[in-house]
Specification:
Layout lengths: L8 H8 L1 H13 L10 H18 L5 H10 L4 H7 L3 H15 L4 H12 L9 H12 L26
């Protein structure tokens, strides 16, 4: 847990990393007319904050920078999915590795974060970071207030019909 006012330097480095900023800008352009949930910075930060809450409630003690790094990078491969059909979790692992290395994450942290990114679409993920990412990614969606909910391709049982936090 970081003291009040302390900066997550490695997370800030991700936010400034040219691969991250380019991927986010491309994704913004590709989703500009999308009526469904988008995958921009707002979504990524919602996921990060939910992961932080879930982690603290469960007493897991995962480092805040690790939680935020996984959340910020989990959809970085979305543009590749739109462009050529590569699953975004697979493309995301490929794009996230050099970002994490450049931003000073350890080999162990990188392995944990990449495993979570690669498995964030799989329910029942066994690693704690992956479980948090899967849950937060799904729960971050405000389906209860979405104007496109009626034509969304998510099954009703996956949609969030109430606010969890």
């Amino acid at each position: 847990l970081l003291p009040d006012g302390e900066v997550m330097e490695r997370v800030d480095a991700i936010l400034r990393h040219p691969v991250f900023t380019t991927a986010l800008a491309e994704l913004h352009m590709l989703e500009r007319e999308r009526i469904f949930c988008r995958h921009g910075l707002e979504h990524l930060l919602d996921v990060a904050r939910l992961m932080y809450i879930y982690d603290r409630e469960a007493g897991l003690g995962i480092a805040q920078e690790t939680l935020y790094a996984a959340a910020l990078l989990h959809d970085i491969g979305r543009a590749a999915q739109y462009r050529d059909g590569t699953p975004h979790d697979e493309a995301g692992v490929h794009l996230a590795r050099p970002i994490l290395e450049d931003c000073g994450f350890t080999a162990q942290e990188i392995m944990e974060i990449l495993t979570a990114i690669g498995g964030h679409r799989v329910p029942g993920e066994t690693a704690p970071l992956g479980r948090l990412l899967y849950r937060a990614d799904k729960k971050s969606r405000p389906c209860y207030a979405c104007s496109a909910a009626g034509v969304c391709n998510w099954p009703e049982e996956k949609k969030n019909h109430s606010l969890e936090f």
